[in-house]
Design goal:
With 427 residues, the chain is of the alpha+beta class. Helices cover 37% and strands 23% of the residues. The C terminus is likely disordered.
Amino acid sequence: MTLEPVHIKAISELADRIDRCLKPEKMEKDETGSVIDILERLKELKHNGQVVLKSIGRLKRGRVSIEKMALSQDPFPVTYSCDSGSTTTRSFDNGLYVDFCHCAMASTPTDLELHNRRTIVAATYTPSYSVNIDITDNWEIVDHGASRCQIIRIAPGLLSKRIDRIVHDIALYLSESEHILWLQDELDPRGFFIMDGPIYPKHLMYWMVVGSEDVNLLYDPHTERILQNYIKIVEHHIDKKFPYIGFVKNPEDMQIMQTLRKEGIKDLPWVMDAQFFKNLLSLPWDREEKSISNRYITYTNWFMQPNQFYERILGTTSPLVKEKLRAKHPREYYSLTFFVVYVPSKNLLFKIEAPYGLTRDERIRDIITRKVLYDIAVSEIPNTLKKADSIAKIQVSERKQIVDRFRYSRVDTSYNETRWGEYDENG
């Protein structure tokens, strides 16, 4: 049975009542401060004497005409992007967890030979020491050298919760980082590189630093290998002055809002940082405007997040990290920097990340900003990133075919899966 008209009417009336409570009124200053006042706090935001966020250069809001930007020239002759597809982690009745991640790289203009290169990682986990997994210490070469694959095993006993997410993350970040390192010397040094999502494997880094009895990645060699790979990627781009970014389509950060509350602003209307930035970048530019026109893209200046575990993990968080991970640049070069871009016509906000070792150079900051604005004006999501996604994606039918290869392991099916079937088209 579905909703009847009387139910729709009742729900609609409830929605109207809630919506009226939030009717936009003329912005007035109060004890929480206006959006602009909060922006001023981001020039250098501290908590307990430690800098949480600070502006690189002056604070500003910028806007560009979508039409004019789209008709301008791409500042780079070639653009590269990397993405991966996944079966998503599957669990079986015998206790096995496995995820297959398949990474590809795309370019604009198109390079079919580059597109054909693939890296495939099968990440496995079982809590039993008695189960033998036929892992591969070295890459297995397939497709006449165009592709390579590897089976890895997360050691028994390291995971008792969040297994699906951790197995997926290890497969994903290992395949992507290894694929980038494999091909980076073959890329045109005049180019621009886009990673899908953040520039660091934040979820794995968090669990490596925090750890618990349920998730103990501190001594997992695959996690260590992944983190060292991302350090190498940062260093390659710093050394070559090869601009690259992480294009975060769905930013979930809350650090700015949480810090402002800790610093005494209790009545903030937002939970997510992205909600604040959307409001900031939606403000009219002058008194004659009632709202920002859909003809524009708006954006912020660059910010730096020092004292994060992105650089702290290189030397002070654990004996293992201190001894094993190697970095050749000053720690602050690995700091995360970012700016945000808002597309009013779609109500979409993107976070653009890059390491401070690149963005400390004003010229590189400016050309990255211009490139991102150009790509968004042309196609909203950068075309090369969409290409990489299309190449790497594992379709639902292909996932089923892969899982059906398991003849001695039966998928651990839940009621929801029997009810809804496989509806996740992502990956």
